[in-house]
Amino acid sequence: MDLIKVLSATGLLLAGQMALAAERVASFDHGSLDTLDALGLGEQVVAVPKQALPGYLARYAADGYVDIGGLRSPDFAALTAAAPSLILITGRQGDLQARLEAVAPVRDMSLAGEGYWEGFSHKVRTLAGEFEASAAADQALAELERDIAELRNGMDTDSRVLVVTHNDGRYSLRNDPVVSGLLGLEAPALPAGVESRSSGNRTFTPLTPAQIAQAAPDVLLVVDRSAAIGTGALDPAALRGELDAAGGESVKLGYLSPALWYLSGGGLQSLRLQLEEVAEAL
């Protein structure tokens, strides 16, 4: 799968379209930002939260874009000064929506729907529709769907894959729709004694390395939240040692890009990158 070829093709489609609506976009959603970028609409963006940008969007850290704080802690003074005409958010900023709407119209780009692909496609098409780029979005989605089918056909889908999030030395189950839904990879059954817990509106399932070893996945994929938010990265050697000590010597370890999987996702570029990382890990 050649991302540059895909972006070139969508760019050619855009060249023949009507003049785009003049927007000044501030995006607190990296997925929407990378979709705009993939569709050749990056010039519509004026402001982003630079402190949380994943590497593949590094060009938006340039001085030409206003830094509007963090994903959960917007800099409202900078946002107001950027004078956006549209602000893109997800559930991370949901409790701030009223304050953001005082600056400019807000669109919540959170994925919605029963299936991941349906929600993702709707998000891409909705965003593209704002900029008269529906034809380019349809082409990019069709190409991505074909590439997903090719990936599935070329990988060992019999492998049992467990995905966990690491947070300050602790691990929890991650039910990831990219891994289970789009790629159709099944997780192993969890051992007896593993229980889910609730904290506010969030439900999570803690897992120890011993419990992971007992579940005996063929592949363990780790999303390092601590590294993504800058509070201390996981020590891979320590995790390997804990798994081996608990009888998990056969478990293959794969470390997914922290910012891509924890802070981004839901965009044409990020989804493709995520799929390729999983395929490589297998």
CATH A-level architecture of the largest domain = 3-Layer(aba) Sandwich
What's the pLDDT, averaged over the residues?
Answer: 90
> Based on CA inertia axes, which overall geometry fits?
globular
Sheet with the most strands, sense and barrel status: 5 strands, parallel
Oligomeric form: single chain
How many DSSP E strands?
12
Along the chain, the helix and strand elements come as HEHEEHEHEHHEEHEEEHEHHEHH
Gyration radius, to the nearest Å?
20 Å
Spatial ordering of strands, largest sheet: 3-2-1-4-5
Secondary structure: helix percent = 40-55%
- The CATH homologous superfamily of the largest domain corresponds to Nitrogenase molybdenum iron protein domain
Q: Just give the CATH class of the largest domain.
A: Alpha Beta
The structure class reads alpha/beta
CATH topology of the largest domain: Rossmann fold
**Percent of residues in beta strands:** 15-25%
The separation of the N and C termini measures 17 Å
Low-confidence stretches: 3-20
The tally of structural domains comes to 2
Count of alpha and pi helical runs: 12
How would you characterize this protein structure?
The chain has helices at residues 3-15, 30-38, 76-82, 97-101, 116-129, 134-154, 177-182, 209-215, 225-229, 236-245, 258-263, 268-281, and strands at residues 25-27, 45-48, 66-67, 86-89, 106-108, 161-167, 170-173, 197-199, 202-204, 206-207, 219-224, 252-256. It is α/β, with parallel strands linked by helices. It folds into two domains: 3-150, Nitrogenase molybdenum iron protein domain (Rossmann fold), CATH 3.40.50; 161-281, Nitrogenase molybdenum iron protein domain (Rossmann fold, 3-Layer(aba) Sandwich). Helix 1 packs antiparallel against helix 6, helix 5 (116-129) packs antiparallel against helix 6 (134-154) and helix 8 packs across helix 10. The two termini are 17 Å apart.
